[in-house]
Amino acid sequence: MLLTAARFPFREVIGIEFSRVLHRQACDNIRNHPREHLACTEIASFHTNALEFDFPEGDWVAFFFNPFPEDVLYRVAQRIVDSARVSKGRIYVVFANSDRLPIFRKIPELKRIYPRGPHAMLLRALAPVPFDFFVVETEEAQPSYA
Which domain of life is it from (predicted)? Predict the structure, then answer.
């Protein structure tokens, strides 16, 4: 997923991996992937607990693919909201292939958003798994949807 994200012009792409084996695989993939195929070359994988990772300031996107047990996901989601309050950035959350979506509904600052138009049709037609999108809305960080 890191290399897929790096095909887009993000400033940097960061992965957080709790499993040492998966972290090593991610580092090997990053090291061996041809840079000419990437729009973003600042890519890193961190072997850490998501509950201990310091989220970046400013605007960013979090991508989850069926992550964590429910209790951990709730605490990570709450940390994302707390990060938005402090940094006043726009934070979007992309959630793929999970049955844990109701957890996000328990946090009022996570507002579900729906892709529209041709992007929505492409996503429904081509995505291998279901995707859901959220934006963090706090009084401190009011995102625009442009």
Answer: Bacteria
Sequence ranges of the domains in the chain: 1-49, 57-139
pLDDT for 146 beyond 60: no
Q: b or e along 89-114 (b: 16 or more beta carbons within 10 Å of the residue's beta carbon)?
A: bbbbbebbebebeebbeeeebbeeee
Q: What is the spatial distance between Cα 139 and Cα 146, in angstroms, rounded to a whole number?
A: 19
Cα–Cα dist 26/3, whole Å = 9
What's the whole-model pTM score?
Answer: 0.84
Q: Helix, strand, or coil here: 34? A: coil
CA gap 32, 20 in Å, rounded: 18
Q: Which amino acid is at 107?
A: I
Span 123-142, pLDDT tens digits: 778 778 888 899 998 876 55
Sheet bearing 91-96, strands edge to edge: 60-65, 91-96, 131-136, 110-113
